[in-house]
Amino acid sequence: MIVLAIDTAGTGCFAAVYDSTADKILASAGADIGRGHAERLLAFVDQALAESGKVLSAIDRIAVTIGPGSFTGIRVGVAAARGFALALGVPSVGVSILAALAKSAAEKHPGRPVLAAMDAKRDELYCQIFEAGGTPRTEAQIVQLDDARRMFTGFDGVVCGSATRHLTDAPLPDVAEVDAADIGIVARLGAAADPSQGKPSPLYLRGPDVRPQAGFAVARA
Q1: What value, to the nearest 5°, has the Cα angle with vertex 146 and ends 141 and 147?
Q2: Rounded CA gap, 110 and 119, in Å?
Q3: What CATH architecture does domain 98-166 belong to?
Q4: Where is the Gcp-like domain (predicted)?
């Protein structure tokens, strides 16, 4: 199976082509662009396809990161994945960033449960615990920093993600140096996912930052 993987959930914008039969990333493209995912994504997809020697019609599945992360970036990636899947008549699947982080950490520390913790800003963390085999032990959640320090004191596994530095006051065990999702891991998780679970949907653990402005009603004539 040939998988096209897309990641726009953070500041990075990445695409990769993966051959699941050979368990090999054929090509990847992308960069940490900050913003402008909608303008750059298709160019990175074209680059990954060209370097892999594959054409778009050869893709059997689309995998996309669904969050948590950038509200706008997630929407761009999910919309693109659904569009590609519809046009090609192939399944699309969602991959959690927390699951991708945990998978990377588990490969470095096999046989250990993993706590994936991302910095959500505002003194909050995105967190989820996975069993040694990758099965989620808890649901993905957003947690206040002080609460997270209490919750994960004495955790019996490996900690990974951009928020590990915020948890150093707790007696944590091993820390895996994994701060960002790897597009290759996203592709592999996407190949293993069950497409019967439905189309990918954004994993929003917090609402959008934009709020309607009040006090600007237009006076009637």
Answers
A1: 45
A2: 24
A3: 2-Layer Sandwich (3.30)
A4: 34-152
For residues 174 and 163, what is the distance between their CA atoms, to the nearest angstrom?
Answer: 14
Residue linked to tokens 């707790």: 170
Q: Where are the domains of the chain?
A: 2-96+179-192, 98-166
Q: How far is it, in rounded angstroms, from Cα 38 to Cα 217?
A: 32
- Looking at domain 2-96+179-192, its CATH architecture is 2-Layer Sandwich (3.30)
Residue 203 and residue 181: Cα distance in Å, rounded?
Answer: 15
Q: Crossing angle for the helix pair 71-88 and 37-52, nearest 10 degrees?
A: 50
Do 2-96+179-192 and 98-166 share a fold? yes
Q: Give whole-number Cα distances, 30 to 34, 97, 174, 182, in Å.
A: 12, 17, 30, 11
What stretch of H or E contains 94?
A: strand 92-96
Nearest to 113, CA basis, from 55, 59, 173 = 173
pLDDT in tens, 131-165: 999 999 999 999 999 999 888 887 888 999 998 88
pLDDT in tens, 47-102: 999 999 999 999 999 999 999 999 999 999 999 999 999 999 999 999 999 999 99
